[in-house]
Amino acid sequence: MSVLGIDQITYGAADLPRCRQFFLDWGLSLVQESAQELVFESLNGCRVVVAHSDKPGLPAGVEPDPTLREVVWGVDTPESLAIYRGRLQSQPGFVDADGRIGCTDPNGLAVRLQLTQKREVQLESALVNTWTDRPRRNQRSPAYDRATPVEVGHVVFFVTDLKATGAFYIDNLDFVVSDSYPQRGLFLRCAQEGGHHDLFLLQPPEPRKGLNHVAFSVRDLHEVVGGGMHMSRSGWSTELGPGRHPISSAMFWYFESPAGALVEYYTDEDELTADWEPREFTPGPTVFAEWAIKGGIDGNTRRQVNAGAPGGKFMTDKPKPPTE
């Protein structure tokens, strides 16, 4: 029995035309479109929905729009779905309809589960030559003019009660702790074997609810850079990147999203098993980014001039301005 990963996310936003262009530039495929909703897909069928804030039936957000309204997790079998149904039916906001079950987590987010709709994809990725292993012979590494994300790899939320929210996912959905900031953050993966994290919960010094970022898996570092360069050329604003996370080892590039908070291209995260022993870290810029380029690489010249060093405890902790 296992949750396999994220099957779908749903944003609430007012500026659908701008979101439409952003996610097309990001590399997703637009598969459905109406006046109140845009539906995109990644390469493996993971869906990104952007619904107008006024769309009837949209789950309540944990903060004002634009933000993420719902996360749908895919499970492996109908039998697993039935087991999770039994666990969640006593939770606040329980729903059971149209092949999905779900509830509201302790942070106020709409959480849903369904039999996974994602499809297997076979992709060629870059081979990496190291001093001791030279698998790439008589061939160049790939170069990408833009990215085509494989899936939504993880989501990150600010929470007001880290203990309660973490326990919800661990006790009800069998998530596993990969690493942590004691009393401040939990990196959680869906199962014992898998990537470093599928969900990261972060309680800031002044606790608040909200979306931190949504991360999209791509093939390799070359696609992180190619995708980031394309987004830069298209006029979208870099928050930070390219760079490398010390905790998960992943290479990244973050952009500001009109659908809410940030989105990230990432690749080459640590792969963990049941033998992994969780570590504890003190929050700070050196554990967020071992190296990173503030403002990003220039999309045209491939040079960055007068870039400042990373600063601040959490590079993506930017509270939203108060709404009028």
UniProtKB/TrEMBL annotation:
Region annotation (Disordered) ranges: 299-324
Coiled-coil region: none
Keywords in alphabetical order: Metal-binding
InterPro entries on file: Glyas_Bleomycin-R_OHBP_Dase, Glyas_Fos-R_dOase_dom, MMCE/EMCE_epimerase, VOC_core
Domain VOC: 151-268
Listed Gene3D superfamilies: 2,3-Dihydroxybiphenyl 1,2-Dioxygenase, domain 1
Extent of Basic and acidic residues compositional bias: 315-324
Pfam families: Glyoxalase (PF00903)
PANTHER family, per database record: METHYLMALONYL-COA EPIMERASE, METHYLMALONYL-COA EPIMERASE, MITOCHONDRIAL
Protein name: Catechol-2,3-dioxygenase
Native source organism of the sequence: Hydrogenophaga laconesensis
